[in-house]
Amino acid sequence: MKAIEARDAVLSFGETPALRGASVSVAPGEIVAIMGPSGSGKSTLLHCLAGILVPGAGEIYYDGRRVDTLNENERSVLRRDHFGFVFQFGQLVPELTAEENVALPLLLGGARRAAALSEARPWFERLGLAGLERRRSGELSGGQAQRVALARGLVARPGVLFADEPTGALDSLTGEQVMDLLVASAREQETTVVLVTHDARVAACADRQVIVRDGKVNALVHA
Ligand SMILES: Nc1ncnc2c1ncn2[C@@H]1O[C@H](COP(=O)(O)OP(=O)(O)OP(=O)(O)O)[C@@H](O)[C@H]1O
User: Fold this and answer.
1) How far is the CA of 10 from the centre of ligand 1 (A)?
2) Model ipTM?
3) How far, in Å, from the CA of 45 to the mean position of ligand 1?
4) pTM for this one?
5) Residue nearest to atom 1 of ligand 1 (CA)
6) Domain range summary for the chain, segments of one domain joined by +
7) Which CATH fold would you assign to the domain 4-219?
8) Most buried by CB count within 10 Å: which residue of 13, 37, 86, 214?
9) Residue 20 C-alpha to ligand 1 middle, in angstroms?
10) Contacts of residue 193, Cβ cutoff 8 Å, sequence gap at least 6
11) Closest C-alpha to 6, from 53, 43, 58, 41
12) Could you read off the pLDDT of 163-205 as tens digits, one per residue?
């Protein structure tokens, strides 16, 4: 199980400050929800933790390793080999079948096609998607597509799963089902989770909630 941490992260987009010294420490195997008003810096903090953006000041650590000092290529290898991602709109590759989408992180990690597909397939049963393996994303409901995206985020057993509004495009019942599956699967494979959400019911599924305001993590709520 792996820890992820931001220490005093500062980041501006041009003149717009997005993070003004944001610190958050997520323990190995912990599920943390990042809440806060629109524009407060939640996604920017998630992107810094995930090595997508590099803060102008401050430090990011994954499993005790400094992330923000890695170069672009090193960060992209780190993301590929250690992190999983789920976004608001599943962002499945439309040309690929559902099972090929799930297998994608394994293929990018160098697995052979047959091995990757056979690791991808059990996820369909596990997430209630049996029979949909050969569908393309245009032939899936929003909830089904998001479960495929969740399987893709977890298939390579990442150290950390980053989820940015994973239920934001779903109705509340479907969102609840996706969250239940996310939490159960992450716990089962001991994946640490950093989740951005506006939805208090989604955040309540986490072990702990942190609130971002004006680019700082300034309140802690224990679930
Ligand atoms: N690519 C960008 N270019 C310029 N400004 C940006 C960019 N991304 C974010 N910002 C600005 O940085 C600040 C923080 O944005 P961020 O997306 O992190 O907030 P958020 O809390 O995730 O918002 P929301 O809940 O609305 O998604 C905002 O003022 C936003 O306008």
Assistant:
1) 13
2) 0.96
3) 10
4) 0.94
5) 13
6) 4-219
7) Rossmann fold (3.40.50)
8) 86
9) 13
10) 30, 31, 32, 160, 161, 162, 163, 182, 183, 186, 206
11) 58
12) 999 988 888 888 888 899 999 999 999 999 999 999 898 999 9
